[in-house]
Amino acid sequence: MLVVMQSHAMQAQIDKVVRVIEEQGMSAHVMPGATRTAIGITGNTGAVDKSLFEVLDGVEEAIRVTKPYKLASREMKRDDTTIEFAQGTVGPKTFTMIAGPCSVESEATMLKTAEHLVARGVMFLRAGAFKPRSSPYSFQGLGLEGLRVLEKCRAKTGIGIVTELMDTEHASAVEDAADIIQIGTRNMQNFSLLKRVGKCRKPVLLKRGMSSTLEEWLMAAEYVMAGGNYQVILCERGIRSFSDHSRNTLDLSVIPPAKALCHLPLFVDPSHGTGKRAYVPAMALASLAAGADGLLIEAHPEPDRAMSDGAQSLDFAALDALLARLKALAPAFGRTM
Amino acid sequence: MLVVMQSHAMQAQIDKVVRVIEEQGMSAHVMPGATRTAIGITGNTGAVDKSLFEVLDGVEEAIRVTKPYKLASREMKRDDTTIEFAQGTVGPKTFTMIAGPCSVESEATMLKTAEHLVARGVMFLRAGAFKPRSSPYSFQGLGLEGLRVLEKCRAKTGIGIVTELMDTEHASAVEDAADIIQIGTRNMQNFSLLKRVGKCRKPVLLKRGMSSTLEEWLMAAEYVMAGGNYQVILCERGIRSFSDHSRNTLDLSVIPPAKALCHLPLFVDPSHGTGKRAYVPAMALASLAAGADGLLIEAHPEPDRAMSDGAQSLDFAALDALLARLKALAPAFGRTM
Amino acid sequence: MLVVMQSHAMQAQIDKVVRVIEEQGMSAHVMPGATRTAIGITGNTGAVDKSLFEVLDGVEEAIRVTKPYKLASREMKRDDTTIEFAQGTVGPKTFTMIAGPCSVESEATMLKTAEHLVARGVMFLRAGAFKPRSSPYSFQGLGLEGLRVLEKCRAKTGIGIVTELMDTEHASAVEDAADIIQIGTRNMQNFSLLKRVGKCRKPVLLKRGMSSTLEEWLMAAEYVMAGGNYQVILCERGIRSFSDHSRNTLDLSVIPPAKALCHLPLFVDPSHGTGKRAYVPAMALASLAAGADGLLIEAHPEPDRAMSDGAQSLDFAALDALLARLKALAPAFGRTM
Amino acid sequence: MLVVMQSHAMQAQIDKVVRVIEEQGMSAHVMPGATRTAIGITGNTGAVDKSLFEVLDGVEEAIRVTKPYKLASREMKRDDTTIEFAQGTVGPKTFTMIAGPCSVESEATMLKTAEHLVARGVMFLRAGAFKPRSSPYSFQGLGLEGLRVLEKCRAKTGIGIVTELMDTEHASAVEDAADIIQIGTRNMQNFSLLKRVGKCRKPVLLKRGMSSTLEEWLMAAEYVMAGGNYQVILCERGIRSFSDHSRNTLDLSVIPPAKALCHLPLFVDPSHGTGKRAYVPAMALASLAAGADGLLIEAHPEPDRAMSDGAQSLDFAALDALLARLKALAPAFGRTM
Fold first, then answer.
1. Residue B120 confidence (pLDDT)
2. A98 and A49, same domain (yes or no)
3. Is the CB of C274 less than 8 angstroms away from the CB of D256?
4. SS3 string of C129-192?
5. Which of D16, D31, D63 is the last residue of a domain?
6. CA pair distance B81, B324, nearest whole angstrom
7. Tell me, what's the pLDDT at C66?
């Protein structure tokens, strides 16, 4: 159920609706929009009586939501979600670059990378302190020490930090260190983890599961939002298919339907999506053209010496060239960068 | 095996190489490039002796080709293939639109469509006279009568005709009526049909099979080229995957690797790829950005009255808007339209 | 529309129903069952008036069929279809083996194989005279000469012949030579070819397309049946998936729903399905257990010398061992072999 | 690296090898086999010197293992793994049934089910106390209270308990309550969870991820084993494909290659694999025929009243009929039940 307030509704009227919802043992999710506020109801068992709300002052209408996801849906919130950071805004008017190496490496390498990015106007540095590796015998990341390195990069350069959380155990540590908490493709349906980041107060970048339908992806976002964290960024990173020309099948075709159904920002990771650095720039430009709000790009000062996934990392010259092309094209899509 | 001629090689030297190849019972495929001519050898059983050619005048080197496709490969022909039509050029410097209804409909509808397209500078009209329908009880197309309608459209407006060939029986009729012979996704590995269009002297638009790997697709092009028809246009139209947000999963990620391995023009069909008209423009723009050479778009004066696939057809207003955006963007990708 | 006759309906009453159907410009398909006859109607444009038939003598009811396939559906024909051959019966009470090399090879090899099979009670020899090969440079089969070899095998041993038809051009030749005409996976939606074999009077073994849904497969069978050839055998041979442990993903799980929806015999080809001879026996036994009516198995006197697909061929010792296990198990599934 | 001991090697010689491995900072995994003991080495960084071990008494040879999984591989342990329970043995000589409802329901329902199962000789009861649900608004299971219900069932009937663990937080509670800890398909690459159950001392049933390759699945088993828990049971439960005839595509074809590469027991879950109860028995029989070691079957006294997944649950009559057929067939596959 979604309670849509009149455009001139006052805060006291909104508070009253929330109180009525909570008195019924349900949860209220207040979602302010550009012209009006909507209040989502979750936690109901069985149907909710619309008339309960339609009689309250300031309420325009109460709408039954039929999609299995509610908080993530356009029915609940028509306007695109924007997320504000110290470094700038993520949303429909901007095109945001997140770049950096696959894993956190030495402090020197990370600082060099952060400084390079900040000098080019890149808002976010990405690097994994905790790494999901398919082999137990592979390098598993620097762990907490890696988070320290990332925090130093932010302290020295002001860059925002994007890093992956793999388990509830490290949720507080990652929440403290990160500006955006990344949930990886393998954990998109790790529901315990999704519930945990629903309690975090940092935005969550939610990668699409490698065999996830659009609905399952939006339901995963719903898990986070149902916990009270409405700042979710979706990230397409390639799906599993029979196709073998690249590491994964980057599914840019999901962008228009995802944008039609859901108000959340949507990024693309063409580095994991293709697995080959030569294919990254074309897919990055196509992401902008297809309607994405930003990119997650692997970049490394010396890709051939990267501790993991060097084959898909851009070097700085290639990253700079890509940034220049994106900046030149962004206005044609109503965005600044 | 590929025999690469010196850049100043004379025609007589090229002829001599061809003669030597044919004396060995093999086939020679002369492929002139921007700076030099290469001669592909096919039809060999077992390894070919390189020294046989390297001693001939005008030969720079003989190269063993390891990919299973030869004539389609960049190893054989480094430069992008361009194809010249009365209506203009298809290739790396242009961005070509092919538009029209799914099926050939009444002469009035087709003429109206052709005139609209020509007025906007669109080079090609597409429409199926022979329709591959999954049900034997569905409308199977107007057949030869449909070809007559298409020929009238060309006669009256000068537009080029793109139409599908489904079997060897109608090969001559379609070759006569069409400027580009379309091979549909379901026939991508109909090898008898591929061999037949290898004998045609009209360019072939070869749709990717819905579960075809890149290599299988290039091998299908190779079938056509091995028959002597080197004018093949590849066309991505969506693959089968678990994903259910659209009719097929349009695989734009195949463009960079296809372009890296193969010199042929590559088009995208976002209408079949998505199955929903609302998603077509974003995917069309992304195709340009990803490196495609053109588009195949379903358009109809009254989509809701189309005889088939109306849900994925643009109306003329939407088509015009898309054309305007593509024309504005094309120069940023080194193309004119 | 399906007209179900009363169980005691006379031939004259059936003939009358057929006449009424044809007078309406539609086609009648008379399908005798164990207890009653049903008459399928195809070729209607728009809805058919039930009352037209329900007033006729001997008619029990007229049923609207909602599945897109009619003739192939259990709604049309409740009883399992059996097909009679000189060599025996294919259907629900038997378990039928079709075995032989991938391609027709020398007359000596083929005769040796046929004699071995006949001695073990195997009813059918399979081998391709026309071979769909992904490369134009690969061996394309012996062609008409291969058909001659197969005919000699039948003449000398009495074995039934199963061989692939790739194009309408060779339809008569293959129909003459074969007891069962095979349509390969790549041609499952070659609708021109399906229509052509609908006119043949030999049973058709229709392989599932490698990315075909169950409905598309049954629609392909419907194409053949709509042409008047009701003797279709379905054959599962592995689908395309992300999975890379075998050449294709043999989909035994399609057997129960296919059997629930369709009355046609269903075979399994575990040789192409797995691509590895070591996995063939387990999948063959599982096919019997899952409800299949027979198998298509690659077998060769000397697999390592086979002209194609040797890696998936059983040698005669392995084939004999498999036959012995199948014969022992068949009665547990209500079948003889 | 794998150190293979001579068949008459003494315990002191084995201990010495372990000591040498640990002195190098690596981990030793002692794996006794039917005729000889092998000792796996993990945790090495870079290549290990074979000669270090080949000079020790009792060592037959040291083998470099090239697969990315070691402890799970046949190279490491040739003999099939058997796992002993109070209720009986899981392994190559038996065929084991695990049955029960999707979710833990009322104590009365669970006890009724457990008693029914024990009376038919079924060793294990399955039911989820913690449920991974795609919607945050769906019933999430009874949690710890559900574990109490399961413990009561075991206390009263002696049946073994199989239940899912979704996060590290509840690992101890589930380990205490369960005889087999189930890891669900969505958590197959939740590496933190895999590491945690590697520390448990109860066997782990590891469901295949819905888009997991065989190698990724065995690597997930390797994660558990690398932690010291060698009692892993693999469980196929259907993969994601384009195919829509059932909820998932049950991949029985993975059984022969999994058995060839890996010594662990392998079960099949045809209930989730098909999603339809009518298809379960055929797939269960086929699993036995294909080489599986057991089944996971959803069964419920009143499927139409089940709290989740009723459509795929067998009622007791259907379960009993299936058990009777499996018991009759098992000896033909060298198994007792």
1. 97
2. no
3. yes
4. CCCCCCCCCCCCCCCHHHHHHHHHHHHHHCCEEEEECCCHHHHHHHHHHCCEEEECHHHCCCHH
5. D63
6. 26
7. 67
Tell me which chain A residues have a C-beta less than 8 angstroms from the C-beta of D217: none
DSSP D165: -
Do residues B20 and B93 share a domain?
Answer: no
Indicate the average pLDDT of chain A: 93
What's the gap in Å between the CA of C116 and the closest CA on chain D?
26
Element counts in chain B: helices (H) and strands (E): 11, 14
What CATH number is given to the structural domain containing B15? 3.30.70.1140
pLDDT of residue B39: 87
Residues D245 and D166 in one domain: yes
Of residues A266 and A77, more confidence is placed in: A266
Residue C69 placed within a domain: no
Tell me which chains share at least 3 CB pairs under 8 Å with chain B.
Answer: A, C, D
Q: Which chain D residues are Cβ-neighbours of C274 within 8 angstroms?
A: 253, 256
Each residue of B13-42: pLDDT tens digit? 999 999 999 988 888 888 777 677 888 888
Domain that holds residue D92: 83-333
- Helix, strand, or coil here: A161? strand
Residues C317, C239 share a domain:
yes
Q: CA nearest A135 in D: which residue? A: D219
Residue B289 corresponds to which amino acid? A
- State both tokens at D285: 């029989």
Res. C311: pLDDT tops 90: no
Q: Which chain B residues have a beta carbon less than 8 Å from that of D240?
A: 242
Q: Which residues of C touch B226 (CB under 8 A)?
A: 136-137
User: Minimum mean pLDDT among B176-180, C2-6, C262-266, D321-325: which range?
Assistant: C2-6
Write down the residue that tokens 């028809």 correspond to: B229
Mutate to test the interface with A, among D41, D67, D190 (most CBs of A within 10 A): D190
Say if residue B177 is in the same domain as residue B225. Answer: yes
CA angle in degrees (0–180, nearest 5) for A324-A325-A330: 105
Across the interface, which of C137, C227, C240 has its CB nearest the CB of B211?
C240
Residues of C in contact with B132 (CB under 8 A): 189, 191
- Greater pLDDT, D95 or B139: D95
| CB-CB under 8 Å, A283 with B252 | yes
Residues of chain B whose beta carbon is less than 8 angstroms from a beta carbon of chain A are: 211, 213-215, 238-246, 249-258, 260, 273-274, 276, 278-279, 282-283, 285-291, 328-329, 332
Residues A95, A10 share a domain: no
**How confident is the model at residue D37, as a pLDDT?**
85
Q: Locate C322 and state its tokens.
A: 């498999």
Is residue C73, in this structure, part of any structural domain at all?
no
Among D29, D63, D97, residue at a domain's last position: D63
Residues from chain B that touch C69, judged by Cβ atoms under 8 A, are: 135
Q: Span A72-82, mean pLDDT?
A: 92
| Domains identified in chain D, total number | 2
Task: Judge whether C77 lies within some domain.
Answer: no
Residue C118 sits in a domain of what CATH number? 3.20.20.70
Residues B196 and B303 in one domain: yes
**Nearest chain D CA: its distance from B248 CA (Å):** 10
- Across the interface, of B245, B278, B286, the residue whose CB is closest to A286 is B286
What's the Cα-to-Cα distance from D62 to each of B81, D1, D20, D29, rounded to whole Å?
56, 7, 13, 14
Residue B287, min C-alpha distance to chain A (Å): 7
Calpha distance C242→D239 (Å, rounded) = 9
- Do A157 and A57 fall within a single domain? no
Residue C74, domain member (yes or no): no
Arithmetic mean of pLDDT, A172-188: 97
